[in-house]
Structure to design on (148 residues):
């Protein structure tokens, strides 16, 4: 068995264990995800196998997390819209990267891949690049912060 598969299995087992311990996390089936979430996964991640789907709820809100067998993950809000996509272990689907961010990254960081995007409050986006640089964009896609 390859090292990648062993690491993915360990990550999945730890995730399952931790989700069982947390009282507000509940494993669910893929079909229990909001339709919007299911469609995004089927369209942009058709080759990836789902290891775990869970619903996280607190007093005021509900969210979903999908973890793939390769360790990638996607988080969704209660409506099924993605809030975070983490593709450390595969190619990030380019059409999920907002055009203005794609243009900025290709111009300023040629040949460096985006591996993670997180939508924050007020429609800001935090973008993780494969070289370890994190970029933060405001709601109009202006760069407002950069961490190394």
């Amino acid at each position: 068995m390859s090292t990648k598969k062993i690491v993915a299995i360990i990550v999945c087992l730890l995730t399952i264990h931790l989700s069982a311990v947390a009282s507000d996390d509940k494993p669910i089936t893929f079909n229990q995800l909001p339709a919007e979430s299911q469609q995004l996964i089927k369209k942009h991640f058709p080759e990836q196998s789902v290891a775990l789907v869970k619903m996280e709820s607190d007093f005021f809100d509900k969210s979903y997390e999908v973890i793939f067998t390769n360790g990638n993950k996607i988080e969704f809000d209660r409506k099924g819209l993605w809030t975070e996509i983490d593709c450390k272990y595969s190619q990030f689907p380019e059409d999920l990267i907002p055009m203005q961010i794609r243009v900025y990254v290709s111009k300023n960081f040629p040949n460096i891949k985006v591996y993670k995007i997180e939508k924050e409050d007020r429609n800001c986006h935090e973008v993780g690049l494969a070289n370890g640089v994190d970029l933060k964009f405001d709601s109009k896609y202006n760069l407002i912060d950069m961490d190394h």
